[in-house]
Amino acid sequence: MAGTILRNAKLHLTSEEFEGADSLAVQNHRIIPLDPKLLEDGTLEEINLNGLHVAPGLIDLLVNGCAGVSFANSLNMDALERMRRWQTKHGTLTFVPTLISGPRETMTRALALAQKFMQKHPGVCPGIHLEGPFINPERKGFHPTGYIRTMTDADISYIKEFADSIAYMTIAPEIVKSKQITELLQNKIKLSLGHTNCTYTDAQNAFRLGVGAVTHIYNGMRPTTGREPGLIGAAIANNNVYVGLIADGRHVHTSIIKTLRKLMVDRLFIVSDAQSVAGASEAMNTFTISGTEVFVDQNRGLIDSKGALVGTNICLMDSVRFLVKTCGFTIDEALKCASLNPAKVLGIDSEYGRIEGGFMADLIIFDDDFRIRYIIQNGFLKTSAELL
Q: Under a CB-based contact definition with an 8 Å cutoff, are residues 92 and 320 in contact?
């Protein structure tokens, strides 16, 4: 069966079978090592990449919006398709639309829409991220206060009903009871701690119950101190926890990112936290998300009326470039934070996040300036021109 051979490439995040290799093949939607017999076959398209980089497709676990649309404000298939096309063009082949705290009817519409979108694009969207409403209002960020609340038994039943449409949830462990955390985890709901004022002890208890991630570390949580490490200290101390980071140079200081690299590069994952202004076709000076007006400040970023940060206008590849160019990460380290580690958070690392025989052929091909030249998604090759 026809496929593609990529030759003379720099391969990243490979399994042992590709160690030292500069070529690979794609056949039947899957990655396979380059066998000489494939060259004799004559039916596979050969592409000489002349030293371009090949890596697993990027996986963004926190996308509020992009391409001029906000997921929360535009709960329709057209909006998701616009987001998908922009993300794909910039190398993010799997993304998680994010819904912040809001009314139940909005959540229901979002979850039902996600189910349809997931069926249409298998592998592109693993569900949505429910960032609230079960968070601490003291660390709410731009979440509307009126919708933040404690969790009830009815909420548990509701969440279980829509479990297949939920990639993960952000919760505050001092708001959601331990028995509720346990029940959600037992029903395969992945949880992440964020927008919380929890103590070190609260966080460690949640981790012992099985919570495996932290949402955008240093943002939406109490600062760490010498006598109260809080969630930040607990996340650093727990080697089983994956830690999300907004790597845009504004949300977390570069020196801290460099320290996180030394402490936990194998369990650090980056997110764009992109808003609708990312990739918008027309310049946007302001926009609104869930009733909050956001100002686009060229120096300070996306801020609300109080000057607080409200997401970013970047794609995940921008963060990869930032980690390499500014924070001292190797290309493989940065890519790991953008593909393999988020795949592990989602539990899809048996098929995504590495160049390995039998893995899904979701690949990005880029140059030394981190510009996307080709993508291969589900085994199908597209050039940068075709992605426009």
A: no
Q: Which helix (H) or strand (E) holds 377?
A: strand 372-377
Kind of pairing between the strands at 363-366 and 53-56: antiparallel
Question: Taking residues 112-126, what's their average pLDDT?
Answer: 96
> For residue 182, which phi and psi values (nearest 5 degrees)?
-60, -45
Q: Which domains are present in the chain?
A: 3-55+353-383 (2.30.40.10), 58-346 (3.20.20.140)
DSSP 152-166: -HHHHHHHHHTGGGE
**How far, in Å, CA of 171 to CA of 372, rounded?**
35
Global pTM reads 0.96
Which amino acids are annotated catalytic?
273
Q: What Å distances lie between residue 247 and 65, 73, 169, 225, CA to CA?
A: 17, 25, 21, 23
- Contact at 8 Å (CB) between 324 and 334? yes
pLDDT tens for 351-377 read: 999 999 999 999 999 999 999 999 999
